[in-house]
Amino acid sequence: MADxxxxxxxxxxxxxxxxxxxxxxxxxxxxxxxLTHNLNHALGIVSLNALEVGRQVFLAFWRFPPIEMALxxxxxxxxxxxxxxxxxxxxxxxxxxxxxxxxxxxxxxxLLMLHVxxxxxxxxxxxxxxxxxxxxxxxxxxxxxxxxxxxxxVLVTWIHGCIGMAYWLRLKSWYPTAxxxxxxxAVMLPLLALIGFVDGGREAAEKLENPxxxxxxxxxxxxxxxxxxxEVYFLQRLGLxxxxxxxxxxxxxxxxxxxxxxxxxxxxxxDNGKSVRIQAxxxxxxxxxxxNIPHASVCGGRGRCSTCRVRINTGAxxxxxxxxxxxxxxARVGAAPDTRLACQLRPLAPLTIxxxxxAQAGPRQALxxxxxxxxxxxxxxxxxxxxxxxxxxxxxxxxYDVVFLLNRYFKAMGEAVTEAGGYLDKFIGDGxxxxxxxxxxxxxIAGETACRQALDAAQRMSRNLAELNRHLAxxxxxPLRIGIGIHFGPVIVGDMGFGANQHLTAIGDTxxxxxxxxxxxxxxxxxxxxxxxVATAAGLAPLGARHPxxxxxxxxxxxxxxxKDAHDLxxxxxx
Length: 575
Hints:
Elements: H1 2-13, H2 16-42, H3 48-62, H4 65-88, H5 96-126, H6 132-142, H7 144-169, H8 175-207, H9 211-220, H10 226-260, E1 265-270, E2 275-279, H11 284-290, E3 309-314, H12 324-332, E4 339-341, E5 351-355, H13 363-366, E6 376-388, H14 390-395, H15 399-419, E7 423-428, E8 431-436, H16 444-471, E9 481-496, E10 503-507, H17 509-523, E11 528-531, H18 532-538, E12 545-550, E13 557-563
Parallel strand pairs: 1-5, 9-11
Antiparallel strand pairs: 1-2, 3-4, 3-5, 6-8, 6-9, 7-8, 9-10, 11-13, 12-13
Helix pairs in contact: 2-3, 2-4, 2-7, 2-8, 4-10, 5-7, 5-10, 6-7, 6-8, 7-8, 15-16, 16-18
């Protein structure tokens, strides 16, 4: 029983989600340390004395025993988690910024080792003050080669931390607005830190012109002698060997695992016919990268976004169950039961999958959104509106005048749709397509709301067009006219398109019928044509004439209501 409990505890510690949280928390602690350290360096622009004053504040916080212990624990855990994550990678193919973060992270310990040993460790071991005067003289005057390495370390640690922060923050709703300011700060801070380092080093070098200054400050701060320096260099060499040994051990362990698992390949097939064979423990996201198949992953495979999600076409019954974190992310986007996160799913048997988002998907697609964005069949109201006779009107005008007039018209129609509670799908030439009821759910009440919203939008369009005609009376030979068609029925709603041109829209017979009703306004000489279903669902007061309409592609005749002017609609209460 004790062994079983120990195994459960150990498995919990090595759980990927737990390690991810440890990496995030320790990374934030280390980023805060680097941030404040660079701010301290920047004080060198003012003076060497300002550097020393800033150092006292900096050390008062970071060498406060509980904080110092948390910092040391964060360093150890962050390195340990990074090595475990490197071992667990089944493919070293990754996006550029992921690779840059990995390489910079591995380079950080060797670059900082001498600096840490020569300051924090040596000051405690040999009881001396590791002042900026001591550090700057060592790196700027006595060992300029190491000074160049420390300047490189400033950039390496800062860029590594900024990449990690970007992966974390890019999923926040406010990040796109703050990104330019954060980027400017990220560029300016290391630049100011390096300038402070240079200015402080020059000032320390100038003070050496006074032969008594070095002896006085060295005696006052109890600078270490040759034995201490030798011990620090010995520990540095030992540390470098340990770092190299740990990295070599992890890489050898990965190679050994691949050789042992070579015969136990699992076939992953994509809906486009491509396939890849992977070993057990490989995630679907890694499988895509191994096969050079583009696959979206905003968070870098950390399981924080949903952009890598896939639909399981076959083999779902043999998959491991999703973790609580994966369930939470999928629930946030209203994913279907057959949907999984590619970065978290590690199949144990062959399966066929379909990536649900384009490879170019960005942070916007990672944010929590209604499930209909991924594709859903629902009943909604569709409105089409088209500007009459605009082709002849535009032929008599300059391009600038045409664009100006269309933009005024689109603004008037768009405001009518949004104010009525609809979703403006698209502008098609001089036409408008709008959806109503996509947020209302299902049922009779939702259908009534959708139809009433669509009729309210048609009435607002008529009013807005009349107002626009009054404003443009001196510029138009004849007032602008529109035809509007509205129909209610089942459609498929979802984000459709390619790349940056992907947006929410609807397809189906209901859309085609609504478009045909808009065209019928010409035949019936009216401004608005609606299907009888729309009129009944909305509880529309009797108005206009009923007509049987033959819709192309449909055998049954559709009863429609022709309304001369949408402005005269009598919607009653509820809109």
